[in-house]
Design brief:
Structural class: alpha/beta
Number of helices: 13
Largest sheet: 7 strands, mixed
Low-confidence stretches: 1-10
Strand order of the largest sheet: 3-2-1-4-5-7-6
Radius of gyration: 20 Å
Helix content: 40-55%
Shape: globular
Strand content: 5-15%
Distance between the termini: 39 Å
Mean pLDDT: 90
Number of strands: 7
Length: 326
């Protein structure tokens, strides 16, 4: 899932790799659990971040890599297994289910967690997946191509008002009503079948204008991708649970790519730092506390943004699980 992932021949460079390694601090040796240190990449994609984590944790550190995208897992396997062998376990699944995934592979706690949210370079670069507005393809956008509802079906089911609300909330679209109306009119007339149809509907409503080099249709594509993959639901689920799967001293790093994701991460970390559930019910049991490592979101360097345009909007936040008082 991570945007701008991998290095040749695997694709683009992993986003903010130096800061990920700094905050995650992967290392070899025996961890607090008594065995080799364990790291979890919940959005392994092509394996760029995972490869660097395993290198830093050599010779004995282990990694569990999770992704909803089976083709991405195949790429990660080709990249990682020949070098790291049984130090790597790859799992097809949703990071929202990480506690259950860890239990299935015989683990219950980790020394580090990375979530690189958003769409991957491999997904964007394959027109048949329907993520990109630069190449015509089906209105699919599923991160797991074997499950879920396609983007076109989402549009068929949404009312114009609900679509406008999603465009405002998930895309930050200031002309959400106009865009939703144009998409709905094209859908009703039977002319909304491909990614170019969606792009043209947005351009017809608000023009092709760009903020910097950003196409005017980008926000609509982002919104529809988030809806199709229930990304906010998965993010909220893991934000409620991640502290419980970290050992004391374990660290979590989150890379988000738009303000709605980053805002949810920020609020959850602040709640956990105050020893509260991110969305606590009255009388809920105490949760593990975290210490926030990033006072504000870190951003990629200007050099990285220039060399990897997909990193431009990245925001990184990190936290460390705090040991309970004796």
């Amino acid at each position: 899932m991570g945007a701008g992932e991998g290095s040749a021949p695997w694709g683009h460079e992993p986003v903010m790799l130096d800061r990920v390694l700094f905050h995650l601090d992967p290392r070899p040796g025996v961890g607090p659990g008594g065995g080799p240190r364990l790291y979890v990449d919940g959005t392994i994609g092509a394996g760029g971040h995972a490869e660097a984590i395993l290198e830093r944790a050599s010779p004995d550190g282990r990694l569990i890599g999770v992704d909803r995208d089976r083709p991405a897992l195949d790429v990660a396997a080709a990249r990682l297994l020949p070098r790291f062998g049984d130090r790597v376990t790859l799992v097809h699944g949703d990071f929202a289910d990480l506690p259950e995934i860890l239990a299935r592979v015989g683990q219950h706690a980790a020394d580090g967690l990375l979530l690189d949210l958003g769409v991957s370079s491999m997904q964007l670069d394959d027109p048949s997946r329907g993520f990109s507005l630069r190449a015509d393809g089906p209105l699919d956008m599923r991160m797991d191509p074997d499950a879920g509802v396609r983007a076109g079906d989402i549009l068929d089911a949404l009312s114009e008002a609900d679509l406008a609300g999603a465009l405002r909330g998930f895309g930050g679209e200031r002309m959400a009503g106009r865009v939703a109306r144009a998409i709905n009119e094209r859908r009703r007339s039977g002319r909304l079948r491909t990614t170019f149809d969606l792009r043209d509907a947005v351009h017809g409503a608000i023009g092709r204008r760009r903020t910097g080099r950003i196409d005017a249709a980008t926000r609509a594509f982002q919104t529809l991708r988030i809806l199709t993959n229930r990304e906010m639901e998965s993010l909220d689920a893991i934000l409620d649970r991640f502290a419980r799967i970290l050992r004391p001293g374990g660290r979590a790093v989150f890379i988000s790519f738009h303000s709605e994701e980053d805002g949810r991460v920020k609020r959850a970390l602040r709640a956990l730092a105050a020893n509260r559930e991110p969305r606590a019910a009255a009388g809920s049991a105490p949760v593990p506390r975290v210490a926030i490592l990033t006072r504000k979101p870190e951003r990629p360097s200007s050099r990285e943004s220039a060399s990897n345009p997909r990193a431009r909007s990245a925001r990184l936040r990190a936290a460390e699980r705090v040991a309970e008082a004796a």
